[in-house]
């Protein structure tokens, strides 16, 4: 079964602390993995795609096929990073559906 | 570029009624997907439209139907509304050849 699991509903850290938002997936094949972010009162927006291998707003994520994980990391959290983060999967060669995890709320305290 | 536009933003309906939600995709995008997001959950895929046809469908009953118009805009129709249909309905547009999705702000549907 295709599934995305984000084990933490809430992650609370202090400003300047490292952040790691966990994402594990279940998919028999080579999926595309994404991180989406939703800031307060804003629409869902793409943060990272694993195939781009880029860093956005200081965030990075590496696809680990052995552990079927795609954890989102940032070395030094900022207050403006506070938001809801969703990990999502799309099957390779499939321009169709995204499968989302339940989301993790990141709270960065001053 | 206005991005993806959805209307209305909020809607209250009574059980058993029918509802139509609308979506205009981002300029240049030709594919529209619809998602349902219940409170505290991640978005769940309903279906996707391309070239005015349903290309893929998630695990939703036939009460959920859709349409795509020649200008790529789309409608989501839900018949015989249930209380459990109360959710945020998101529209996302993309290019058929691949790439990322652009999401709208959603329509908040409340069924009473």
Explain what you see:
The complex is a heterodimer of chains A (110) and B (112). Chain A is built from no helices and eleven strands. By secondary structure, chain A is mainly beta. The mean pLDDT of chain A is 91. Chain B has a single domain, classed as Immunoglobulins (Immunoglobulin-like). Helices cover 0% and strands 51% of the residues of chain B. In chain B, a hairpin with a 2-residue loop joins strand 5 and strand 6. The N and C termini of chain B lie far apart (36 Å). Classes of the chains: A mainly beta (110), B mainly beta (112). At the A-B interface, strand 6 and strand 10 of A face strand 4, strand 5, strand 9 and strand 10 of B.
Brief write-up:
Chain A is mostly beta strands. Chain A is 0% helix and 43% strand.
CATH topology of chain A: Immunoglobulin-like
State the shape of chain B.
globular
Question: Any idea what the CATH architecture of chain B is?
Answer: Sandwich
Query: What is the CA-atom radius of gyration of chain A, in angstroms?
Result: 13 Å
Low-confidence stretches of chain B: none
In the CATH hierarchy, the third-tier topology of chain B is known as Immunoglobulin-like
Which structural category fits the helices and strands of chain B? mainly beta
Structural class of chain A: mainly beta
Q: What is the makeup of the main sheet of chain B?
A: 7 strands, mixed
Q: What is the CATH superfamily label of chain A?
A: Immunoglobulins
Number of helices of chain A: 0
CATH superfamily of chain B: Immunoglobulins
Q: So what's the overall shape of chain A?
A: globular
According to DSSP, the number of beta strands of chain A is: 11
| Strand fraction of chain A | 35-45%
The end-to-end span of chain B amounts to 36 Å
Oligomer: heterodimer
